[in-house]
Amino acid sequence: MSPMADNFARAVEDGLRLAKRIYFGKDRSVAPPKPPVSMDKSVSSYLYMPTAPMVYAVISDPAIVDNPDIPSYQPHVHGRCDPPALIPLQMNGITLEVDCYLDTAFLTVTGSWRVHCVMGSRSCDCRIAIPMGEEGSVLGFEVDISRKSYCTQLIAMEDRDVEKVVRAEDGGFLKPHIFTITVPQVDGGSNLFIKASWSQKLVYEDGQFSLSVPFSFPEYVTPAGKKLSKKEKIRLTVNAGTSTEVLCNKTSHPLKELKRQVGKLAFLYESEVLSWSSNDFTFSYNVSSSRTFGGMLLQSPRTHDIDQREMFCFYLFPGNHQSRKVFRTEVVFVVDISGSMRGKPLDDTKKALLSALSKLSPEDSFNIIAFNGETFLFSSSMKLATNEAIDNATEWVNINFIAGGGTNILLPLNQAIEMLSGGTHDSVPLIFLVTDGSVEDERHICDVARSHLTDQKSICPRICTFGIGLYCNHYFLRMLAMIGRGQYDAAYDGDSIETRMERLLNRSTSTVLSDIVIDTLNDLDELEVYPSPIPDLLSEGPLIVSGRYRGKFPDTLKARGILPNMNNCIVELKVQRAKDLPLDKVLAKQEIDLLTAEAWLSQNSELEKKVAQMSIASGVISEYTEMALLEIPQKQEIPSKVSAQKLVDSKEQKIIRKLGLGFGNIRATAENIPPGLEAAKLPEAAEIFVKAASNCCGKLCEYCCCMCCIQACSRINDQCAIVLTQMCTALACFGFIECCAALCCSDSDGR
After folding, report:
1. What pLDDT does 586 receive?
2. Of 89-93, 350-354, 453-457, 541-545, which gets the smallest average pLDDT?
3. What pLDDT, in 10s, does the model give residues 75-105?
4. Residue environment code for 193-227, b if the CB has 16+ CB neighbours within 10 A, otherwise e
């Protein structure tokens, strides 16, 4: 668990202890919330992480903790909580709304929480925590309190120093799938009405989509007192966007079917409960077919859309297990073993790699290149995946996967491309790159890969990339995968490296249709396709390609590709207008991510501005926008996207938060800092003290070497040694005085 998440869990644990002060009256059957019990300290930290939408009271002064309705008049508590404790608030109602379109789900949680743990005459900050599912992306918040309300808006990033107005506790990602935001100064006893929205990907496997939403509430959020029934509600709609029948498979909660049409479903769960849901909400449905099928959806832009070209979305679904056949695999694993991969990152990478080797068939071939500042090859040529070869590779990995050295990506990538350039015609060559670092020549690497891959006459090697942590440039890895018609994924924290890498490896080696082109598409005006070139169709997921165009779209289309038996495949695409399906919302995140990678590669400022405008219009966070929590004046509606900037510049501004991944950290890579473990910065006072105390000795050492000092000290007598000691003590005192002056008399910049 990351240090930030661990601190959060400790704060919740402290908060639950502090909540024992709350007085619930003379009824002894009513007791304060019981924290979860675990003997294992490493496991106990996970028990306090949010597993459902939660709200916490931020307590710095423990003296304010009390029942706002029944004061306990307990003895005064001296001292403060540093860092602040987090007391989970009791929840009074919850509604979950889910809308599934194509491969994306849009979720909205509406709930009511009460500040039950703070005196009515005092106030505290309240921290909202929203855990999300697969590739979750927060879209916005609305908060209503008795005398004020707040909302979030994305705004264009400016050149000001953001760090001066942002605190880490104001908002951001606690973990890659948990987003938090803090509402300032809520009175004790108040009710918070919160609406949170986010999107997440549907997981596709064996012809079915599955959705998993964190919806397991701990016992201590149930209001204390008599067991009164509370309303719990879930509304779910499915619009697959296809003309095929959709069938419900499994669900975790008793859903009642409201509607069933071709490609559409609607369900409702509503119940009066004594205790809140203790299970995550899961749902799965089938859109499978015995053959590969696809379609083309069209939609006109909205009036406020910055791009007034027409939109299209092309989708292809693979056939089921019985009818499909995948290409033979030729794969070169290119694995980073630099010093920063030491420990869990490299151990989990080895496990995923060896698992992938065990799944290769004897007709497949493979090789392994480990790299840091230099490269280490398992073999000078491709090896058939026989049991003997896999055993030898396993032994080689265990011997050679030792973390150390720098990071050089270009050399092993060139070696892998050359190794696969003379491949056979009945396979899709694959390069699988794993790294946790960022290098200076990333744009040059993309240019080299593009030139190599466009010169290939047969099926060119696909490049799949996997990033670990936040120090690698994820947009470089995304762009490299897009150039190589491959797949990209990442593990932003150490907990998900092995599972996500194994899943990407399985997807990457499941090609069922390659070199896909769409007839007559290039005849349109001002055509833009995301991603381009079009990737292969995989058995482990549908292919979704979007774009913009001008002109008249043809009534019928055909998609062409190459099957594993090297025969041509033609898929008829039905062209239709998208009904009840907001294409702009569904495609926004994919287009923003791909255009951000394009903007990074081309260093195009106009493209960056376009991404920022798309981000503000859709609510999807980007590298060029910030999130602001705005206090809305009473009797005023939630501001529009245009008027949000005016509120940001006014006194109603509460926080601004940059939420993007960034474009890598070359310094951290060069220093081999492990992912997520950058050395903590010393407090300002400590920095000044160390600098002042070491300044004198540092200057003295500039004029003499260690050997001179040793030789001189060995020849002095006792009297000289005493004098030298007294002189060093005096110099140390002068250094201490300088330190005190720096601490007491420095300006705000520490000078």
Report:
1. 94
2. 453-457
3. 767 778 889 999 999 999 999 999 999 999 9
4. bbbbbbbbbbbbeebbbbbbbbbbbbebbbebeee
The span from the CA of 41 to the CA of 218, in Å, is: 19
pTM, two decimal places: 0.85
| 3 state SS of 467 | strand
Cα(616)–Cα(624) distance, integer angstroms: 10
Amino acid identity of residue 209, one-letter, is F
The string of pLDDT tens digits covering residues 206-242 is 778 999 999 999 999 988 766 677 899 999 999 998 8
* Dihedral sign (CA 404, 407, 410, 416): positive
Structure tokens at 235: 């509304």
DSSP reduced 3-state for 726: helix
What is the greatest pairwise CA distance in the chain? 102
Q: How far apart are CA 50 and CA 571, in angstroms?
A: 45
Starting at the edge strand found earlier in the chain, the sheet holding 256-261 runs: 256-261, 264-273, 230-239, 90-101, 104-114, 191-201, 137-144, 149-156, 625-632, 653-658
Amino acid present at 164: K
Q: List CB contacts of 196: < 8 A, sequence separation 6 or more.
A: 53, 108, 109, 128, 130, 138, 140, 141
Average pLDDT, the chain: 84
Q: What are phi and psi of 153, to 5 degrees?
A: -140, 145
In angstroms, rounded to a whole number, what is the distance separating the alpha carbons of residues 391 and 45?
38
Look up residue 92 and give its two tokens.
């009074």
Does the pLDDT at position 719 exceed 60? no
